[in-house]
Amino acid sequence: MAVDPYLLRELLSAVILFFITRYFIASLVRRSTRTLPPGPKGWPVVGALPLLGSMPHVTLAKLAQKYGPVMHLKMGTCDMVVASTPDAARAFLKTLDLNFSNRPPNAGATHLAYNSQDMVFADYGPRWKLLRKLSNLHMLGGKALEDWTQVRAVELGHMVRAMCESSRKGEPVVVPEMLTYAMANMIGQVILSRRVFVTKGSESNEFKDMVVELMTSAGIFNIGDFIPSIAWMDLQGIEGEMKKLHKRWDALLTKMMQEHAETAPQRKGKPDFLDVIMANTDNSEAEKLSLTNVKALLLNLFTAGTDTSSSVIEWALAEMMKNPSILNKAHEEMDKVIGRDRRLEESDIPKLAYLQAICKETFRKHPSTPLNLPRVSTQACEINGYYIPKDTRLSVNIWAIGRDPQVWENPLDFTPERFLSGKNAKIDPRGNDFELIPFGAGRRICAGTRMGIVLVEYILGTLVHSFEWMIPNGTELNMDDTFGLALQKAVPLSAMVRPRLTPTAYLS
């Protein structure tokens, strides 16, 4: 029986049309179920960018109260999600950690971090793993930190004696300048086998200014990052300033490396961190480090290693000066455990529960990084029933989590006692308890988490144990902050100090 060609063509067309229609409808159904998380509509073209203002961490916290713990914002041409509660942070940084292990492209990574050749902004892959491994083994890990215990003690000795001299002269101590000077020298001893600054003065103050400028500029929401087609216009002038700052940093790092190379014979058999890193530029393994990688890593260590810990210590001292009863209680604990005949030692810290509680309370209320460094989704995913597209930027509002009244009782109060008993007693800031994640969590948790905690506890403990702290006459204690990658005090803390130990305790 012959088949009518016309009928056959019609049947085939109908079948094809059926499957096309079915696929199209199914696609529409899938799209309709792909609901983005709630969030503000924003403006045409620029999206929610104008809504953020000068204090994005505060604005995003307020928006989260309206739109929920997982919030979507259209930022220019980019999608961004913000996690604002411990559960939301856990979902992104633990459950979906691998999918959010990369950084989105941004001007800071390009112009400051040698085009993402560093550890902070590098893609999650072999080079990042090598940089992280070397840093942990030789500087940031537990064994490495033990190896340079004496370096920290010596540099703190220099600092407390300088503070005694300021006290004798009746001069106030500018806390962030003092801390940056001491911490840069600690890091310099480990990386370069020498103090970076022999005397405190214009050179160390310029270094502090460069660190603050880098942290501030890298934290700004740059329009060009979210609307790449107009990035060349540099509407905010940010990229131009970044390029100038990069030249200053590159000149400083180049000088450090040249001077270090000239003294290589003196370190024969006793390699420092830079010697170890440089050895990995010549190895025969598949993954090698370039000189640019080395410079970029040094930039990470000198900036994040000084500024983040310094800001936490400064905030802790300011809170104790504002609440003298807390300072007195810390003194009482230290006098009982240590006495006044010697300086605090790192081995004393496990016995100082109240000091550790003060540090945790500062991490909670004044996290050094208010918004975690942005991550970006490798693939589309779902969270809490919401659809998260591929290439969506993730921001975890660590500042908001620390001030969430659903998590913390009276969150605006500075109350170290909250960590001494009850449900918060075992909370730890190392990235496993999402109520307190000042260093982030997951694969991209801050590489210097362990070092940061050691520096904050030891330096803050030494400063509290060694001195009485007072607000200079005729001044007021300003507790305002200013936004950046690190949460700086808007007005640097200036204080009068008075030694409280026996004179011989300051000689070591």
Automatic annotation (TrEMBL):
Positions contributing to heme binding: 446
SUPFAM superfamilies assigned: Cytochrome P450
Broadest EC class assigned to this enzyme: oxidoreductase
CDD domains hit by this protein: CYP75
UniProt keyword terms in alphabetical order: Heme, Iron, Membrane, Metal-binding, Monooxygenase, NADP, Oxidoreductase, Transmembrane, Transmembrane helix
Gene Ontology MF term list: flavonoid 3',5'-hydroxylase activity; heme binding; iron ion binding
Ranges annotated as spanning the membrane: 6-25
Entry protein name: flavonoid 3',5'-hydroxylase
